[in-house]
Write a structure and sequence with these properties.
- The chain has 350 residues and is an alpha/beta fold.
- The chain has a single domain, classed as TIM Barrel, CATH 3.20.20.
- Strand 8, helix 16 and strand 9 form a beta-alpha-beta unit.
- The longest helix has 24 residues.
- It is globular, with a radius of gyration of 19 Å.
- It starts with a helix and ends with a helix.
Length: 350
C-alpha cells in the first residue's frame, strides 16, 4: 500500500496499517535546499514558474517518507488576477498595495478564470502528478473566503481585524458582495486544481478564529459551505483547517467536508468528540515542539497518537505550519516515529 493509498484511505475513515503524515509548510524555509532556490527567485516567481514550484514541492518528499506532497504556492496567488496588487517583502510578509476599503474597490473585484489566469498552477500540478507516480498523494489548496478577504481589506497581517469586522457590521451588503466574489474565485481555483490532478484539497481559514462564534456562523461558514458543496461533484476528499476554531467545531461539523484540521489548542480526542466521528481529523501537534530534543518530539507525537488510538480517520500533522529554523533531522525523527508507533498501535502491540 503506497503512502497515497494510506493518506486517502485515512481521509475516508477506512482502515490503514499506520497513520499517514504530512506537514503544513513542509516545503519551506527550514530546508537548506529551499533557501538555495529562494536566493535565485522572488517568492511569487517561485509560485509562478512551474519548474521551480515542482522542485520545491518535491524537496521534502525526497528527504522524508511523507505520505503526501502539497503544491508549493501561496493562498494569495489568486488575488492578483482578481485585481488585487500583492507584494511580498522579506521580513514583512505579504502587503496589499491597493486594499479593498470602499464600495468601488469591492465592485472592481473580478472572479478569476483559472485556466487563463493561473495556468502555472495547473501545469505544476500535472508535472507533480507525473513525478509522484502514484506513490504519494498530491494536495491542492486555497485560502477560504474570510481569510482571503481579511488580507484584502486589512492590507496584510492584522492584530485586531478592525477594518474587515467594521465592514462586516456596518455594510453587510458590501461585505456579502465581496465574500461572494471570493467564494466564486475559490470554487474556480480549486476546481482547476482537482481537474489538474490534486488527490485532495485543503481550505486554509487561518484568520477565521478571530471571529465570534455568531459571526462565524453568519459571515464565514455559509461561504465555506457553498465551496464544499460545489466541489463534492469531483469526489476528492476536502479538508477544512483554521486556527483558534475550537469554539466553532460544532458548527464546522455541519460542513460536508471529509476532514477537519485541528490546531494544538485543544486535545484531538476532545475535538473529535465535538466534530463527530463521521469525519476524519487532522493534526495536531504543537509545531514549536520541533525545536526540542528527540524525546520531547516523540512524547508529543505519542500523546496525539494515543488520543486517537485505533479509531480510523486520522492524518497526523502539526496544529499549524512547520517553522523556519527547525532542525531537518528532527523532521525525520518525527515522520519515522509516527509511522512506526502508529503501526504498533493499530496492530495492537503494546
Amino acid at each position: 500500500m503506497t503512502g497515497r493509498d494510506v493518506f486517502l484511505r485515512a481521509l475516508r475513515r477506512e482502515p490503514v496499517p499506520y497513520t499517514p503524515i504530512w506537514l503544513m509548510r513542509q516545503a519551506g524555509r527550514y530546508l537548506p535546499e529551499y533557501r538555495a532556490v529562494r536566493e535565485k527567485y522572488s517568492f511569487f516567481e517561485m509560485c509562478r514558474i512551474p519548474d521551480v514550484a515542482v522542485e520545491v514541492t518535491l524537496q521534502p518528499i525526497r528527504r522524508y517518507e511523507l505520505d503526501a506532497a502539497i503544491l508549493f504556492s501561496d493562498i494569495l496567488v489568486p488575488l492578483v488576477p482578481m485585481g488585487i496588487d500583492v507584494e511580498f517583502s522579506e521580513g514583512k510578509g505579504p502587503q496589499i498595495l491597493n486594499p479593498v476599503r470602499e464600495e468601488a474597490d469591492v465592485r472592481s473585484l473580478r472572479v478569476i478564470e483559472a485556466r487563463e489566469d493561473v495556468p502555472f498552477v495547473s501545469e505544476a500540478l500535472r508535472r507533480l502528478k507525473e513525478e509522484l507516480k502514484g506513490d504519494r498523494a498530491l494536495i491542492g489548496f486555497s485560502g477560504a473566503p474570510f481569510t482571503l478577504a481579511s488580507y484584502a481589506v486589512e492590507g496584510g497581517h492584522s492584530k485586531d481585524y478592525k477594518l474587515i469586522k467594521t465592514l462586516m457590521w456596518t455594510r453587510p451588503d458590501l461585505y456579502a458582495a465581496m465574500m461572494e466574489t471570493f467564494t466564486d474565485t475559490v470554487i474556480e481555483y480549486l476546481s482547476l486544481q482537482i481537474e489538474s490532478g490534486a488527490d485532495a484539497v485543503q481550505l486554509f481559514d487561518s484568520w477565521v478564529g478571530n471571529l465570534s462564534a455568531a459571526d462565524f456562523r453568519t459571515n464565514a461558514l455559509p461561504y465555506v459551505r457553498r465551496i464544499v458543496e460545489a466541489l463534492k461533484q469531483y469526489g476528492v476528499p476536502i479538508i477544512y483547517f483554521g486556527t483558534m476554531t475550537g469554539g466553532f467545531f460544532s458548527d464546522i461539523a455541519t460542513l460536508p467536508v471529509d476532514c477537519v484540521g485541528v490546531d494544538w489548542r485543544i486535545d484531538i480526542d476532545r475535538a473529535r468528540d465535538i466534530i463527530g466521528h463521521d469525519k476524519a481529523v487532522q493534526g495536531n501537534m504543537d509545531p514549536v515542539v520541533m525545536f526540542a530534543d528527540a524525546s520531547a518530539i516523540k512524547a508529543a507525537a505519542a500523546d496525539v497518537l494515543r488520543r486517537v488510538g485505533t479509531e480510523t480517520g486520522h492524518v497526523f500533522n502539526f496544529g499549524h505550519g512547520i517553522m523556519p529554523g527547525v532542525p531537518v533531522d528532527n523532521v525525520a525523527i518525527l515522520v519515522d516515529f509516527v509511522h512506526t508507533e502508529s503501526a504498533k498501535i493499530r496492530a495492537g502491540v503494546q
